[in-house]
Amino acid sequence: MHVIVGGSVQGVGYRYTARMIAREIGVAGWVRNRRDGTVEAEFEGTEDQVDEMLAWMAEGPPGSRVESAKVTDAAPTGGRGFEVLNTA
């Protein structure tokens, strides 16, 4: 899945909490801030894992305020682990 989350999602620990949650759930992928103030992520896993990650991303960590989430399918890469990338 490819997700772009908007709202108050930068400067609130969103990316690092997303990495922690993703690793707990077992999805692989990445998350990063974008210059327009949104957070972008791409991840893969089982259907249940992906659903759980999407549900978390719609809420975010305490202190965040998710106002929008654009979700699109992305081709699986077979990646391992989940990382925080540099700003795009």
CATH architecture: 2-Layer Sandwich
Instruction: Predict the CATH topology.
Output: Alpha-Beta Plaits
Shape: globular
The count of helical stretches stands at 2
CATH class: Alpha Beta
- Give the strand order of the largest sheet, numbering strands 1, 2, ... along the chain: 4-1-3-2-5
Ranges where pLDDT stays below 50 over 5 or more residues in a row are: none
Number of strands: 5
InterPro entries: Acylphosphatase, Acylphosphatase-like_dom, Acylphosphatase-like_dom_sf, Acylphosphatase_CS
Active site: 15, 33
Protein name: acylphosphatase
EC number: 3.6.1.7
Give a nutshell description of this structure.
The protein is of the alpha+beta class and 88 residues long. Helix content is 28%, strand content 34%. The protein has a 5-stranded mixed beta sheet, covered by helices on one side.
Describe the model:
By secondary structure, the protein is an alpha+beta fold. It has a single domain (2-82), classed as Alpha-Beta Plaits (2-Layer Sandwich), CATH 3.30.70. It is 28% helix and 34% strand. It is built from two helices and five strands; from the N terminus they run E-H-E-E-H-E-E. It has helices spanning 14-25, 47-59, and strands at residues 2-8, 28-33, 39-44, 65-72, 82-84. It has a five-stranded mixed beta sheet, with helices on one face. The two termini are 18 Å apart.
